[in-house]
């Protein structure tokens, strides 16, 4: 097969930007970067970008890390170690390592790619797709790559269609009738509408396709500009919009759906409320995000654990889960679980209840606890009789309560509470 007839994904690489903390998740990212935060019962957030790339046929990937990267690196080493160089497959993890000079860490998203130019060169690819590692969605990148090649664009930007009234929180694309980006405006107070739908706007997903030779030169020029902030959204993309050809790719055309009438699913789970809701939504009868789709699986590290176990069947002491997701290794011992999502290895004990709870791996819920609308961090030990979610003022004394009424519980919060009681 000649290069001209090879799928574009085979001539491309994915460069995943995974260095951010995600400060709006507060204590959930005290010990891990946002892309390493758990999601959906057994996966991490970064698994969605990686799985999209792999399912799209891209077998060359690089992950740039920076903030508290150990958890992320360990996860990728364990769950994404099936790439074989003899098959021309690569996954490189690229921590900020002062590659330019001893004082130079990654200064922005564009700088993270620039500092690894030699590594990207070694992949011998034609196209590079830049991805954020901290969003939840399913997307066939081959569709976007094909659009980019056919249009002759210098950059193609992945875009979401949102109500114009909601667009002020994003970077917004103004486009013409052909889909060419005529302006890029960061968080505008008066977002431009679409030519064919004035009440809607296109916002950036942080996904960009370039020919590598073109992007390489852009990055060289940007690195030489002392006024640049070294960022794709602030510097690189506006530069191409002004001086080149930038095209918008609409997510609706490449979104992977589990049924034809399903809505386009994309979530930024960057706040406690958004994180809690996206996880709890999975417990619904027919969630918009289908984790059971074997045609587009979300790959991840799967621990070797026994099946979930439910024990006790007495009045008020019954191990049962209703409208919930319960992962392997969980033991539900005399606990009532409703509309909740339990990650691997959660143990809950008698006469307790979990309602609208997101419980991260290996947490323990001791007896007589009642927990409602909570996120419980990994490894937390909930003490006997703890009640959360019924008195917001009392909860706020010890834990973090979000604007939407979600209570985050970490071990350090519980330890502080214990020391004061």
From TrEMBL:
PROSITE patterns: ADP_GLC_PYROPHOSPH_1 (PS00808), ADP_GLC_PYROPHOSPH_2 (PS00809), ADP_GLC_PYROPHOSPH_3 (PS00810). It catalyses: alpha-D-glucose 1-phosphate + ATP + H(+) = ADP-alpha-D-glucose + diphosphate. The keyword Disulfide bond does not apply. Pfam families: Hexapep_GlmU, NTP_transferase. Its EC number is 2.7.7.27. Pathway: Glycan biosynthesis; glycogen biosynthesis. Residues 306-409 form the Glucose-1-phosphate adenylyltransferase/Bifunctional protein GlmU-like C-terminal hexapeptide domain. The record marks 66, 105 as: Could play a key role in the communication between the regulatory and the substrate sites. GO terms for molecular function: glucose-1-phosphate adenylyltransferase activity. Residues 14-282 form the Nucleotidyl transferase domain. Alpha-D-glucose 1-phosphate binds at residues 106, 171, 186-187, 204. It comes from the Bacteria. Keywords: ATP-binding, Carbohydrate metabolism, Glycogen biosynthesis, Glycogen metabolism, Nucleotide-binding, Nucleotidyltransferase, Transferase. PANTHER family: GLUCOSE-1-PHOSPHATE ADENYLYLTRANSFERASE (PTHR43523:SF2), GLUCOSE-1-PHOSPHATE ADENYLYLTRANSFERASE-RELATED (PTHR43523). Involved in the biosynthesis of ADP-glucose, a building block required for the elongation reactions to produce glycogen. Catalyzes the reaction between ATP and alpha-D-glucose 1-phosphate (G1P) to produce pyrophosphate and ADP-Glc. Belongs to the bacterial/plant glucose-1-phosphate adenylyltransferase family. Homotetramer. This is Glucose-1-phosphate adenylyltransferase. It comes from Pararhodobacter zhoushanensis. The gene is glgC.
């Amino acid at each position: 097969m000649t290069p001209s007839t090879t799928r574009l994904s085979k001539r491309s690489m994915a460069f995943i930007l995974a260095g951010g903390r995600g400060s709006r998740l507060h204590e959930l990212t005290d010990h891990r970067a946002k892309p390493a935060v758990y999601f959906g019962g057994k996966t991490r957030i970064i698994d969605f970008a990686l799985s999209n790339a792999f399912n799209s046929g891209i077998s060359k990937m690089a992950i740039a890390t920076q903030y508290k990267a150990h958890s992320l690196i360990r996860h990728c080493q364990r769950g994404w170690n099936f790439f074989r160089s003899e098959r021309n497959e690569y996954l490189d993890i690229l921590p900020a390592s002062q590659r330019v000079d001893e004082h130079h860490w990654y200064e922005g998203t564009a700088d993270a790619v620039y500092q690894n130019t030699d590594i990207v060169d070694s992949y011998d690819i034609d196209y590079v797709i830049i991805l954020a590692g901290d969003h939840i969605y399913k997307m066939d990148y081959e569709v976007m790559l094909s659009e980019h090649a056919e249009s002759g664009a210098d950059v193609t930007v992945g875009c979401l269609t949102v109500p114009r009234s909601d667009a002020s929180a994003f970077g917004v694309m103004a486009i013409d009738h052909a889909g060419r980006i005529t302006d890029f405006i960061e968080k505008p107070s008066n977002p431009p509408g679409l030519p064919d739908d004035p009440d809607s706007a296109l916002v950036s997903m942080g996904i960009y396709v370039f020919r590598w030779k073109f992007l390489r030169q852009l990055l060289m020029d940007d690195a030489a500009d002392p006024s640049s902030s070294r960022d794709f959204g602030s510097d690189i993309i506006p530069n191409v919009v002004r001086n080149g050809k930038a095209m918008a790719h609409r997510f609706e055309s490449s979104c992977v759906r589990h049924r034809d009438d399903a809505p386009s699913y994309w979530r930024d789970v960057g706040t406690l409320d958004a994180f809690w809701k996206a996880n709890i939504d999975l417990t619904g009868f027919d969630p918009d995000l289908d984790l059971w789709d074997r045609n587009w699986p979300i790959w991840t590290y799967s621990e070797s654990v026994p099946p979930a176990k439910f024990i006790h069947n007495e009045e008020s002491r019954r191990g049962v889960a209703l409208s919930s997701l319960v992962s392997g290794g969980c033991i539900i011992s005399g606990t009532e679980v409703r509309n909740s999502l339990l990650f691997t290895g959660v143990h809950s004990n008698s006469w307790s209840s979990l309602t609208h709870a997101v419980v991260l791996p290996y947490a323990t819920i001791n007896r007589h606890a009642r927990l409602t609308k909570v996120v419980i961090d990994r490894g937390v030990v909930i003490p006997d009789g703890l009640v959360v979610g019924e008195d917001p003022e009392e909860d706020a004394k010890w834990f973090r309560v979000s604007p939407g009424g979600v209570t985050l519980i970490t071990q350090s919060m519980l330890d502080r509470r214990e020391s004061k009681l």
